[in-house]
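Milestone M4 deliverable, item 7.
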Amino acid sequence: MGRIFSILSDASAAQPFLCLMSIPFPLFPTQMVEQPQKLLDQLRNAIRLKHYSYRTEQTYVHWVYRFILFHQKRHPKDMGASEIEAFLTDLAVQKQVAAPTQNQVLSALLFLYRHVLHQDTGLNIDAVRAKKSRYLPTVLTHEEAIAILEHMYGEYQLIAKLLYGSGLRISEVLRLRVQFCNSAFTESLRHSHRSRTVGS
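Output delivered:
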């Protein structure tokens, strides 16, 4: 300590120390410059602000990530209609995805450009369209559905009844809790149905 004071008493020797003391350092970590939020995190926040379902959030993030990888990790703000068309065409021709899946991908990309990048998406997407399936799903009659429910037991029957009677997704039913079963429960169901989109 005495050595430091002896140095500072000499004006020529103390000059380097005085220069260091004059450098302004941030006093608190909050003064540091915040890093910009990543694109996919911005996408998640925009989806949550719209109150879309968690499943829709996962799906949109997945397809936007695939879109970026398809174009060698170029930023979407530097791409446009031609890149979207190329990606959709590849999905239809090479990956042979179903038509609903291709529509879902288009919805995800349009959401990204409109609500995250805030770019005008007046784009005429002219991609090769996936072929629509001619398969007609088998729909059970009311009597057949009731017969199936009567052959189920315990929590599995309860889950099946909720799926059949409310129209909820299985992921939504599995997240239900006893405390949700009150007057606010009906309103939450209505809100859930309003929040759904074609891409979900």
